[in-house]
Design brief:
The chain is mainly alpha-helical. Helices cover 35% and strands 8% of the residues. It has a two-stranded antiparallel sheet. It starts with 25 loop residues before the first strand and ends in a 9-residue tail after the last helix. InterPro entries: Znf_C2H2_type.
Length: 208
Amino acid sequence: MDKSMVKSETVVAPPPPVDLTAKVIGWCTYNRCYQGSTSWEKHVQHQRKRHCTAAERHALCRFCLELHHAGLQEHLQEHALSDVACSLCSGRFLDDGDVARHKADFHQVTTGDEVPPALGRCTKCPATFSSWEDNVQHQVIRHHKKDADRVCSHCLVPLPSVEFAETHVLRHSEGKDFPCHLCPARLTSEETRTKHLQRFHAQEWAFR
């Protein structure tokens, strides 16, 4: 066979590490995407590019991200007449209830009026997280669809079988693991905890 006719396999390089020192003000929660944004405008751009069809891009409100396939101009007039500004970003909404839902969903504010810091990052995509639980959901839905029922929620190790997973989880419950001091993750060895600190939390000092 002519070697020139053989199609070479494309190797996709992993994305560059996300800088956790950048001030993330909110996260995309669509289908557990969790890509962080440093401004509302960048979040709107992300929604248009990653999660909208061509038709939806023309129907998306840039102020509140509501979709209006018919009547977008009327909706924009409502914003012009009277709307409520978010105190944490430049998003604008039609009532206080919408603002509260926006803060809980996008800014992930639970108490007070302060955006939680980015706790860690995904090593497979540009997502960042304000909690370990968000990372677990993201990994299972976005990166482990085929073996979701065999991914350990404590250390995110994909296990060979459901039966083995039960034994593995029992080891965690018996305290035979290595907890992270920055999040609820519990790792299986000192080495994997060090890798977790360096990769997820971007603690470069962990390898020094």
